[in-house]
Design goal:
four-stranded mixed β-sheet; 2 domains; UDP-n-acetylglucosamine1-carboxyvinyl-transferase, Chain; EC 2.5.1.19; alpha/beta
């Protein structure tokens, strides 16, 4: 599906979707449990549906309601699925459930779509083998399809910390139900550390202890997953919220209110500080969970995305409309997402007339040398690229058509409906 946008101002109120990161972890945590837990306010998207399907493949039961998902778990002992576990386009699903597969008494095959089959899994496979499990890439290249089995009893594994924090989260979640517990030694400094903090936050809500700092993280064994009173509520998603807040900073002269902004462990809350540093008038009522933002005279900043890789597309798009240069650093690991997001944003913003300089580990967007013009751009099959290009389209001269716009379903299924409600003219075509 293509979506065409024209320059617009936005106003009114929008609700942030529920957190994708929290939803994934809460669904799997409930799956690890021995009873039934209800996850309220989940994000139901293509990615989280893949995690629900994986829980069912391992022997759990998932029942979806209007605003909740009720899950009966497999009590820490996953069945060997009778079919391939298809993680679709969800890297989080694949990494978290690869560790789940290492608990099974038999072999599990995990795969996904073409994009997911190009993403690195090797460090997690190596860790599982260090723990006594079997973990192989069928093409011997560290990428899916994967063959994984056990059951592992726990132990100690060394793993790099700068490829994906999801490897650490996966091992901690599985390690808590092993007999001996599990310790992860990081060979390099941890990037995207807030995502591990999200994992610890969810584990705590399900009565599971895990901890760590620096180069050592661990989960004692023999634990049981059980949410307090069998209930868990997912907070709003700051990754998705970044597009709404940025739309306000770019195109809301009369202000835009975003609701569902309760504080949490999400690293992408940094978007608030980034937009304020760029000059956007922004007020966050943490108790009420609301953020009010207005269009401002924006200036380029330097921002590290070492812990917040999902913010790179957002910052690049806003930087193209700001004065000066926006320098996004510590971004080499952002090249290993659904697509190489560094090159994707450089190329697609370039099509729209942006002056961009790309290096291995940084992206410079020269807003003062840019006059954004509408163009036909490629969303690269990546939900975050699509939404970031929509931001650029709000302030570009002329029409912007984004190919592959349907991919917003991965994390923000109602994104374009929300933009239309805020005043943007959104035209869809096949």
């Amino acid at each position: 599906m293509d979506v065409t946008l024209t320059p617009a101002t936005v106003t009114g109120q929008a609700r942030a979707p529920p957190s994708k990161s929290y939803t994934h972890r809460a669904i799997l945590a409930a799956g690890y449990g021995g009873g039934t837990a209800t996850v309220h306010n989940p994000l139901v998207s293509a990615d989280t549906r893949a995690t629900m399907a994986a829980v069912e493949a391992f022997g759990g039961r998932v029942e979806r309601g209007d605003d909740a998902v009720t899950i009966t778990g497999f009590d820490g002992r996953p069945d060997v699925p009778d079919r391939i576990v298809n993680c679709e386009n969800s890297g989080t699903t694949m990494r978290l459930t690869t560790a789940t597969a290492a608990l099974a008494d038999g072999l599990v095959v995990l795969t996904g779509d073409e994009s997911l089959r190009s993403r690195p899994q090797g460090p997690l496979l190596d860790a599982i083998e260090q723990l006594g499990g079997r973990a192989e890439s069928t093409r011997a290249n560290g990428q899916a399809p994967l063959v994984v089995g056990g059951p592992i009893d726990g132990g100690r594994a060394a793993i790099p910390g700068d490829v994906s924090s999801q490897f650490i989260s996966a091992l901690l979640m599985a390690g808590a139900v092993t007999p001996d517990g599990l310790t992860v030694d990081l060979e390099t400094a941890l990037k995207s550390a807030p995502y591990v903090e999200i994992t610890l936050d969810v584990l705590d809500a399900f009565g599971v202890a895990a901890s760590g700092e620096g180069r050592e993280w661990s989960a004692p064994g023999g634990q049981t997953y059980a949410a307090s009173d069998g209930e868990y509520r997912v907070p709003g998603d700051f990754s998705s919220m970044s597009y709404l807040l940025s739309a306000g900073a770019l195109a809301a002269p009369e202000g835009l209110r975003v609701v569902g902004a309760e504080p949490s462990a999400q690293g992408d809350v940094a978007i608030v500080e980034h937009l304020q540093a760029m000059g956007a008038p922004l007020r966050w009522d943490r108790e009420a969970g609301t953020i009010d933002v207005e269009r401002g005279a924006l200036e380029g900043i330097e921002a590290s995305v070492a812990d917040t890789p999902d913010l790179l597309p957002t910052l690049a798009a806003v930087g193209a409309a700001a004065d000066g240069t926006t320098r996004i650093v510590d971004c080499e690991h952002v090249r290993y997402k659904e697509t190489d997001r560094v090159s994707a944003m450089a190329d697609e913003l370039g099509r729209m007339g942006a002056s961009v300089t790309e290096h291995d580990d940084e992206l410079l967007v020269h807003g003062s040398e840019t006059d954004l013009e509408g163009a036909r751009v490629d969303g690269r099959g990546d939900h975050r690229i699509v939404m970031a290009l929509a931001l650029a389209g709000l302030v570009a001269d002329g029409e912007t058509t984004i190919e592959g716009a349907e991919h917003v379903d991965v994390s923000f299924p109602g994104f374009f409906e929300t933009m239309a409600e805020l005043g943007v003219d959104v035209v869809r075509s096949d």
